[in-house]
Amino acid sequence: MRSFTRELWFEVPRRMDFVHITREVQDCVQESGVQEGLCLVNAMHITASVFINDNEGGLHEDYKEWLERLAPHDPSRYRHNRTGEDNGDAHHKRQVMGREVTVAITEGQLHLGTWERIFYGEFDGRRKKRVLVKIIGE
Amino acid sequence: MRSFTRELWFEVPRRMDFVHITREVQDCVQESGVQEGLCLVNAMHITASVFINDNEGGLHEDYKEWLERLAPHDPSRYRHNRTGEDNGDAHHKRQVMGREVTVAITEGQLHLGTWERIFYGEFDGRRKKRVLVKIIGE
Amino acid sequence: MRSFTRELWFEVPRRMDFVHITREVQDCVQESGVQEGLCLVNAMHITASVFINDNEGGLHEDYKEWLERLAPHDPSRYRHNRTGEDNGDAHHKRQVMGREVTVAITEGQLHLGTWERIFYGEFDGRRKKRVLVKIIGE
Predict the structure, then answer these.
(1) Rounded to an integer, what distance in angstroms lies between the CA atom of residue A111 and that of residue C5?
(2) Is A61 in contact with B42 (Cβ distance < 8 A)?
(3) How far is CA A74 from each of CA A28, A79, A88, C45, rounded to the nearest angstrom?
(4) Cβ-nearest to A44 among C56, C66, C113
(5) Burial label, B115 (beta-carbon count in 10 A; 0-12, 13-18, 19+)
């Protein structure tokens, strides 16, 4: 069994935004030498997501508006913010979009559908945060 | 290490519906010969889900009504639909229900709880779409 | 390849509550002897979740209030409850919070971000329920 571990760093200039990271994950797969296996990609922060969807700007704006409606930023709304934080909303948005994806590796490539793209979802940005790529296989 | 890869095809006649696929996934596990491992099952499309829940028709109708309330079909509501699509809602519904499940394989069987069943969740049907089953283990 | 399987039991005295289980999962990793691999942790019940977020009581109260707003307990609201159940809401809350997490194992430890903690999320408690920990790796 082979394994591969890499932490990717991001600093998103806006509070909420999505970063396309399929290329970075593909590079990890190539470097790992794994031909058949699984590739876990997860946010290492609890106010961020890794998710798979379309690389289409209009959809991303739709997501932001929808997440803002489901869990508004409004800092006074969350008990969590009594700890001195103002990111209670981000902990909620991240649960809707998910923490992680697991992607199959087949014949040395990410086994993705035609339109599947991997994104880092930031909900409390403007600071450095990490994504973990862990690959196991053969 | 053994690995196994299979793409399952579905053509759901309605825009939104759920298809019970536990049997198909079990067949893959059997065919793989894996006794101890992990089985990833994921939608290969970004307007569909794979999820685990109850095989109970009333619940499925509840889910549809709830998802329609959280992300109504209404095509004029989504910027994504300016690209010529009418499935903006489906990209949202899929995020609530999730892209994938990972199921343990123990003693050659899917290690599921008593009521756990695997479903393909379609939110933009009436065309052929794929689910990926990837198994690794020993 | 090594593998490890353990079912953890919980009996949560309230209908909805969250139980911190990072320690129990860490113990499984240690016992497995796996140095590099993946650790799947999933609810074996379809009215419960396993998720990763902050170990902060205010946030947990925020989550409960938010989930209650997204899918109120109100038993008359769900077709599912015509089967004699009163837990239709729990099947919905669990979909928002997710069924499972997959955590990387690196150098014999759960590879978690600074604030990542693993929780069992109960939405239909007051009875014994199970969580599965499955580890594969080397």
Answers:
(1) 27
(2) no
(3) 38, 11, 9, 34
(4) C113
(5) middle
CA C79 centroid distance within chain:
25
In angstroms, the Cα distances linking B40 to A96, B50, B97, B133, C43 are 20, 10, 16, 6, 16
Tokens standing for residue A56: 């289409």
Closest CA to A109 of B134, B43, B35, C138: B134
Give per-residue pLDDT as tens, A26-60: 999 999 999 999 999 999 999 999 999 999 999 99
Chain A residues whose beta carbon lies within 8 Å of the beta carbon of residue C113: 43-46, 130, 132
The mean pLDDT of B113-128, rounded to a whole number, is 98
User: What are the counts of helices (DSSP H) followed by strands (DSSP E) for chain B?
Assistant: 3, 8
Structure tokens belonging to residue A2? 């082979």
Q: Which two tokens stand for residue B78?
A: 């989504």
Question: B102 and C98 in contact by Cβ < 8 A?
Answer: no
C40 confidence band (pLDDT: 50, 70, 90): very high
**What pLDDT was estimated at residue C39?**
98
Which string of DSSP letters, residue by residue, matches C25-83? HHHHHHHHT-SSEEEEEEESSTTEEEEEE---HHHHHHHHHHHHHHS---GGG-GGGGG
Element (H, E) at B42: strand B37-43
* Residues in CB range of B51: below 8 A, 6 or more apart: B97, B98, B101, B118, B119, B121, C95, C99
pLDDT value at residue A90: 98
* CA atoms of A49 and B120, how far apart (whole Å): 23
Report the alpha-carbon distance of residue A90 to residue A85 in Å, rounded. Answer: 11
- pTM of the prediction? 0.99
CA atoms within 13 A on the CB side of A8: 24
Is A100 close to C96, i.e. CB distance below 8 A?
A: no
In contact, C25 and C68? CB cutoff 8 Å: no
Q: pLDDT grade, residue B116 (50/70/90)?
A: very high
